[in-house]
Amino acid sequence: MAKRTKYCGEISKEDLGQVVTLKGWVRKRRDHGGVIFIDLRDREGFAQVVFNPEKSRSAWEIADKCRTEYVIEITGEVINRDPEAINPKMKTGEFEIMATEINILNSSKTVPFGIEDGTPSNEELRLKYRYLDLRRPEMLANMRLRHDVTKTVRHFLDDHDFIDVETPYLNKSTPEGARDYLVPSRIQGGHFYALPQSPQITKQLLMAAGFDRYYQIVRCFRDEDLRGDRQPEFTQIDIETSFLSPAEIQAYTEKMLVKVMKEVKGIEIPTPFPQITYDESMARFGNDKPDTRFGMELIDLADVVKDVEFKVFQMALQAGGQVKAIVAKGAADKYSRKDMDNLGTFVGQYGAKGLAWLKVETDGLKGPIAKFLTEIEADLVAKVGAEVGDIIMFAADKAEVVAASLGALRNRLGKELQLIDESKYNFLWVVDWPLLEYDEEAKRYTSAHHPFTMPKESDLPLMDTAPEKVYAEAYDIVLNGYELGGGSTRIHKREIQEKMFEVLGFTKEAAVEQFGFLLDALEYGFPPHGGIALGLDRLAMLLAEEENIREVIAFPKNNRAIDPMNEAPGKVSPAQLFELSLNVTIED
Amino acid sequence: MAKRTKYCGEISKEDLGQVVTLKGWVRKRRDHGGVIFIDLRDREGFAQVVFNPEKSRSAWEIADKCRTEYVIEITGEVINRDPEAINPKMKTGEFEIMATEINILNSSKTVPFGIEDGTPSNEELRLKYRYLDLRRPEMLANMRLRHDVTKTVRHFLDDHDFIDVETPYLNKSTPEGARDYLVPSRIQGGHFYALPQSPQITKQLLMAAGFDRYYQIVRCFRDEDLRGDRQPEFTQIDIETSFLSPAEIQAYTEKMLVKVMKEVKGIEIPTPFPQITYDESMARFGNDKPDTRFGMELIDLADVVKDVEFKVFQMALQAGGQVKAIVAKGAADKYSRKDMDNLGTFVGQYGAKGLAWLKVETDGLKGPIAKFLTEIEADLVAKVGAEVGDIIMFAADKAEVVAASLGALRNRLGKELQLIDESKYNFLWVVDWPLLEYDEEAKRYTSAHHPFTMPKESDLPLMDTAPEKVYAEAYDIVLNGYELGGGSTRIHKREIQEKMFEVLGFTKEAAVEQFGFLLDALEYGFPPHGGIALGLDRLAMLLAEEENIREVIAFPKNNRAIDPMNEAPGKVSPAQLFELSLNVTIED
């Protein structure tokens, strides 16, 4: 048979009277008065193909054998449909192809789920038959959207003189950060490569090499327990530059994202993106990645409640903590007492001991704690800006617990009360991060971002005296409540990098053992440099309006890090293990 | 200091009289009559910066402290050099910058090798200080060339409706092909992922999903012993299509490569690329990846020598083997008897028992075997087209040995006799490959390409009776004697794939255990499909006119698969092994 002349979805007026050859999948076949109609599907859409035994008996006979998802090729003339057969919902709905030839290229068993019946509810089945799941037009659209994102990013960076450099996947294991995936070496028995959690050090070394502007769309690996939006491997838009300020790097990032939003979604995003500091973000949203598509900000009530005789509030304040509230607008008649109990359980997950709340009614504040607050009722209502029909919800605890619980509650209520304009894409920079976090369990400091982040110059003296007070030249970019990426200025002087390792609890020897090559490199003309990494999966997910990154990954793992299709990871032969000088210590 | 206004290498006439800010590395510093001259280098080139103490004493003082490879930023006015100071070899050689400001951004110890003194001879040192090696302008140029190649490839494929899809790196280990790199699973103790040797099955499944045209520039992994042009990880331009014929796929590949050659090298390559069959290539060049930039083809002498009483020839012919020769034009006075002995040792590596040869002199053929061939001298000279001053070299053995030894000899002599026009880029398709090879050691058939390659339709009946005679719908693309890539039509029917596994020695159970998901997929409307994979490292190497792929890889491994910079692979902690349910079985 001839070459394909068109995609099914591209049949248009111009083809009328033309003979076309199409190749694709049988979407539907129906027999109507002895004439067979096949809806044929390919990547670009559908077309209706007609087999009239009076036109071609042989073609009709083959068409009669076709079943759903058979792969066929057909040749025929494009004609207008009868007026009453026009399907205005279908792009090619005015036309049909009067087939004179057909070949069956492959058959199909009955598929385990309909290709066009919406998303199957059993995700494990979707992953097992991923090639069929990806055949669904929604999934194909998601994968094409993802490609449009990477294409736009690449073209932008190519046009701005960034050099795409491939960095190694077989790397060195480092004890910082998340758990590494290891790759045993055969030639060096007992030694292991590690798959990169990010090419952080490598891209810094490219700056030492004078590459000036680097990018890579690169796979990264973390062997962590999986949550809804995590995968063992994920993709990063990785950028590093020399001699640029954070503001300049941010400006490039904004231009790039503006272009992505324009090309992929047709949406104009104004620049510069708003910025707030980490501290302000925690104070106002209880969160370092605030969803700014709705209000319901946290309001500090220390002043208002400082004299009331409500023990919960007083204890929190006296212990150096906070009392804060959010106002759920118009929620009073939507949340029963039982609903409020559920919200109390919910904030319990974030460390809160309970959820105090008040409904604003025409005759005043009502609720379990109303009796304690009668004196300040007017002040309180004024302070939080509440109106009749609202619910005021309180947290009184350590600052971290107040932020975590009210921040989570705010996000939940934002969704439940449908306060979020889903058409909005709110980009936001969260700047001035703390350099370190204190790990209560390990009793040591860990990096808030990574150990190569530059402390604010003015805070350098605090590295010795009060590391927890040191801020970093670090900034995150947030989109609609998701952390999209993180950037920073990196350390480019050996003495600062050594100090950083010291604060993180490395001995001098351990620092040299693990990072000696970087420390050495810092002594050979390492330029000031900084960069950013953006999560491609998450960006694609948000633009595809999906809620799980698995929807924008062709072959994801399930939440036990298994690929249900090929059943990876699998057993390997004793010979393979022997060559790698390894024994498995468990049976199964 | 202000933002950089220009790259050093971009200073031009237009900047005269302008104040510029440059940032870069001190290439050279010299003091000339109390004035300091610094050659400043960045990614784009060099500029001369002048520090005159009469212009700015403070700048001069700082410049005086600068040493080679210090990182500095300077500001000053662009002026014309004195006529006698103009350097016509330097792009910016007519200009200099009269500096009024300078900051030292970082210092540098004395570098272990000069950044501009040519390629250091100690490659291990280059790899240990790769960030300095990459600072050398030649290496930066190689990495940029590589990026230009990928950029051109991507833009071409983007423009031709190929969808870039990322496939998993954490995959399933399969027993076919080369040795896998394994990745132990923590969650499924005792189970392993494998890093992909190529995303072969995955991209085929994307065809099952109806993606129609896929591409990816993707890392692949093979745990093999390393040769000069191998690395544990390498990069593939990976392409798969549905419904296209080999000729159509080849035409796309040609258009893509023509564009690469045009954009990257400014060279026009005519299309279509020449094609020869595998059998013809072996017969004429002794090689399945012939370098066609020079002649010296193998000439079959069976007819000419069939009656001579030279035992070596007779035995070879009687055993069903061959007698062939190549003619080294004008080599007679270049190769001594001792040189010929060395060539004899050389062909010994390819299984030849020795090298028979004759020099063509004015008074006839001379050499150790001349006396056996006196009768046929005229016929022989005519057949091989030899002239006075040439050497005729013979091989008489099994066809494989004749091909291997004369093929290797031809390549060696082509280089030694400088027969190769290095400015040429000879692309060539080698088509009609055998489907299988017979592995003498394992006593079984193995795939010549991979087990998913479609046999020629007409040869299908031979799969049961004479598998070694089956040809495949497979084609390699060759450039200047290097295999650049391989393509094929893939099997899209379950019964053929099952037959293929059977021929390869799989039991039914083993085939299902390893490849059941593919076999299943073949029953759900799998379209006819095929594709190609091209080695990016090799392509970039050839275009960069390098002889080793390490020269076009930013951070390669050495030939023991070690990265001398960070010393990967390394030891890991007992805790890491415990979590992975592994023991190391050797000490070190």
From TrEMBL, chains A, B:
EC class: ligase
Molecular-function annotations in GO: aspartate-tRNA ligase activity; aspartate-tRNA(Asn) ligase activity; ATP binding; catalytic activity, acting on a protein; nucleic acid binding; transferase activity
Aminoacyl-transfer RNA synthetases class-II family profile domain: residues covered: 143-564
Entry annotated with the keyword Aminoacyl-tRNA synthetase: yes
Subcellular location field: Cytoplasm
Pfam families per record: GAD (PF02938), tRNA-synt_2 (PF00152), tRNA_anti-codon (PF01336)
Chief location category: cytoplasm
Keyword rRNA-binding among record annotations: no
UniProt binding sites for L-aspartate: E176, R222, H449, R490
Key words of the record: Aminoacyl-tRNA synthetase, ATP-binding, Cytoplasm, Ligase, Nucleotide-binding, Protein biosynthesis
Gene Ontology biological-process annotations: aspartyl-tRNA aminoacylation
Catalytic activity: tRNA(Asx) + L-aspartate + ATP = L-aspartyl-tRNA(Asx) + AMP + diphosphate
Gene3D superfamilies: Bira Bifunctional Protein, Domain 2 (3.30.930.10), GAD-like domain (3.30.1360.30), Nucleic acid-binding proteins (2.40.50.140)
EC number annotated for this UniProt entry: 6.1.1.23
Function: Aspartyl-tRNA synthetase with relaxed tRNA specificity since it is able to aspartylate not only its cognate tRNA(Asp) but also tRNA(Asn). Reaction proceeds in two steps: L-aspartate is first activated by ATP to form Asp-AMP and then transferred to the acceptor end of tRNA(Asp/Asn).
Protein name in UniProt: Aspartate--tRNA(Asp/Asn) ligase
Origin species: Vagococcus allomyrinae
Organism placement in taxonomy: Bacteria, Bacillati, Bacillota, Bacilli, Lactobacillales
